[in-house]
Amino acid sequence: MLKSQSIRRKFLVQLFISSASLILIFSSLLYFYIKESIYDEKTNELIHYAQNISQQRSVYDIGEFPDNFLALSIELISLWATLEETEVYEKKENKKSYLTLIYPFDKNHHLYLKITKEITPTTKLLAKVLNYIFIINVAGFLIVIVYATTLSKILVKPVKRMSEDLSNMNEHLMHPIEMQEIPLEFLPLAQTINHLIARIQNFVKYQKELFIGTAHELKTPLAVIKLKNQVTLIKRRSAQEYIDAIQTTNKTIDEMDIIISNILNIGRQEGAQLDQPQEIDVVGFLKQKANDFKLLADNEGKTLEMEFHPDMFMATLQVSLLNQIVQNFLQNALKFTPRNKSVKLQTSQDDFGLLIEVLDEGCGIDETVDFFAPFKRQGNKSGVGLGLFLAKSAADALGAKITIENRKDGIEGTRAALQLNSQLSCIIPQKK
């Protein structure tokens, strides 16, 4: 049984109403057209008789003698009111129908011809025509309903198939929808679902890696603390040795605290995705962040270059998520760029929207490694390995594209890029 929210039910109800209305209008127009045509023919016939009588000719022309001659009644009547034109009317007596014509015969003496003809066979024929039209239209209406019901089932079938495929999936068993049997009209929906499945698969994979990595990252320092304490307790030691042991323990605890803080950032980021989006000038925001990091770059003997095109780009988004991505890009770039080298922050407009790029002059990356997975590190630099994982999650929440790759301009280093979708943004033209 179809529910009230069913699109198929609404489609069938609307089709039922529209088809019934169309058939009713069409049947009425067809019947009245046939009826008027027949009555016009009968009226013209009576006028022809009247004209023959007025011209003192035979009522019927030679060779036109009708079979129902006796059904014709002709009278000469007098009317005080003057009729400028002929008058035709129909009346019924004793279950018979008659068509009467009043035709001017002698207007000076107010004489008129009254010609009456029985049209009972004609009215019966019209009744049969109306019945046939009704039967044919009812049959056509039923055919339309059956066809529409079958068509609606055919249209809903791909959606049901996709629903069945999705209902059989879980986080451990996920596979994309087969596109070969999907009708052309449903391909965009299937592609969107497959894209969502791919994102869920990546999310599940990253979550598993996050849990495993977290356990591993926390287990190692805990083992170090335990071993150091066991070694310290084997025999009596000097005060300085106890101090060194406690300092080592504190250092390990600080490393664990960093790991836990980064894990907490993941939870905070989930909450940040629900923040109210704000309209900001993205280029102005990047200029402010660049100025903050420029002081840090100068302090480390590095150069931070900036190049922004266009001058302004308004977008509605969660500022905290954008800040997390840009901050991670700049921190990584400065971390892996040697002294006396430069980092460049630039923006440009492309077909997708606003392209934000951070180019460094470091050692580059191994592009076979998925750096967006949790706890993936580059070289022997310090860090937990959650920065790019958080940046990727933030980009997905913004509906943006994020990439990290080696530079292709002949300079050794890494290119980190973020593409903001222009559908939720607008460009403010530069003032001249």
Describe this structure in words.
The chain is of the alpha+beta class. It has three domains: 7-143, no CATH class; 189-272, Signal transduction histidine kinase, dimerisation/phosphotransfer (DHp) domain (Helix Hairpins, Orthogonal Bundle); 278-427, Heat Shock Protein 90 (2-Layer Sandwich). It has helices spanning 7-54, 120-167, 187-233, 239-272, 282-299, 319-336, 387-398, and strands spanning 72-78, 87-93, 96-106, 111-118, 278-281, 303-308, 313-317, 342-349, 353-359, 401-406, 414-421, 425-427. The strands form three sheets. A five-stranded mixed sheet has the order 6-8-9-11-10. A four-stranded antiparallel sheet has the order 1-4-3-2, covered by helices on one side. A three-stranded antiparallel sheet has the order 5-7-12. The longest helix is centred in the N-terminal third of the chain and has 48 residues, at 7-54. The radius of gyration is 45 Å and the shape is elongated. Residues 62-69 and 425-432 have low confidence and may be disordered.
Summed up:
This protein has 432 residues and is of the alpha+beta class. The protein is built from seven helices and twelve strands. The protein is 52% helix and 19% strand.
Biggest sheet: strand arrangement: 6-8-9-11-10
Q: Tell me the count of domains.
A: 3
For the biggest sheet, the summary is: 5 strands, mixed
State the shape. elongated
Low-confidence stretches: 62-69, 425-432
CATH superfamily of the largest domain: Histidine kinase-like ATPase, C-terminal domain
Category from helices, strands and their pairing? alpha+beta
Order of helices and strands: HEEEEHHHEHEEHEEHEEE
CATH third-tier fold name of the largest domain = Heat Shock Protein 90
Strand content: 15-25%
Number of strands: 12
Using the 3D structure, state the CATH architecture of the largest domain.
Answer: 2-Layer Sandwich
Cα separation of the termini: 65 Å
Count every helix, treating DSSP H or I runs of 4 or more residues as helices: 7
- Classify the oligomer: single chain
State mean pLDDT (0 to 100 scale).
80
The CATH C-level name of the largest domain is Alpha Beta
